[in-house]
Amino acid sequence: NISFSSGKTGEPLDTKFFDMWGGDVAPFIEFLKSIQDGTIVLMGTYDDGATKLNEEARKLIAELGSTSITNLGFRDNWVFCGGKGVKTKSPFEQ
Predict the structure, then answer these.
(1) pTM of the model as a whole
(2) Distance (Å, whole) CA 58 – CA 78
(3) Are 63 and 37 in contact (CB under 8 A)?
(4) CA–CA dist 24, 53 (Å, integer)
(5) How many angstroms separate the CA atoms of 25 and 29, rounded?
(6) SS3 state of residue 71
(7) Which residues does UniProt assign to the signal peptide (predicted)?
(8) Model confidence pLDDT, tens digit, residues 2-29
(9) Which of the listed residues 8, 31, 36, 84 has the most CB atoms within 10 Å of its CB?
(10) Contact present, 80 and 53 (Cβ < 8 Å)
(11) On the CB side of 38, how many CA atoms lie within 13 Å of its CA?
């Protein structure tokens, strides 16, 4: 599950969910690439969010401020709040 909000107004911009067990990672990667600077990004997984994640997807999420995405494994649960253009790691990740 992923949601984008405006970093200036907090207004919701877009929300989607992706199947990282049996689905294709390509639409998820394209969605991540569409994020504009200044956008707040909220992500959450349940059961398995890592099976289909490849290096490109993990890199794009890390660029949003995630430090845990490189270690996310099979059946790990994960929540994250970051943003496009963030220069430091996110303090909101578990």
Answers:
(1) 0.87
(2) 13
(3) no
(4) 9
(5) 6
(6) helix
(7) none
(8) 999 999 999 999 999 998 888 899 999 9
(9) 84
(10) no
(11) 6
